[in-house]
Amino acid sequence: MDNKGQTSAEFLLLFGGIMVVVLLAIYMYNNYLSDLSGQIESREVKQFNSQLHNLGNYFR
Question: What is the distance between the alpha carbons of residues 31 and 44, in angstroms, rounded to a whole number?
Fold first, then answer.
């Protein structure tokens, strides 16, 4: 009888399900990045930054 209300409710449920999946993916990606940051040594980061700085000198 009230098809518009049922359709709206189904869209809300679908949207809510998609949001749950997206939030879970973001949470898992955040954990992955946190774990990855512990594996990078400070020496490697400094070397990378100096290489970027050297490249920047070419564009000045």
Answer: 21
pTM more than 0.85: no
- Cα separation, 29 vs 45, whole angstroms: 21
For 40-51, how does the pLDDT look when each residue is reduced to its tens digit (9 = 90+)?
Answer: 666 777 888 888
Q: Is 58 exposed, middle or buried (0-12, 13-18, 19+ CB in 10 A)?
A: exposed
| Assigned token pair, 27 | 């949470």
- The 3-class secondary structure across the chain, one letter per residue, is CCHHHHHHHHHHHHHHHHHHHHHHHHHHHHHHHHHHHCCCCHHHHHHHHHHHHHHHHHCC
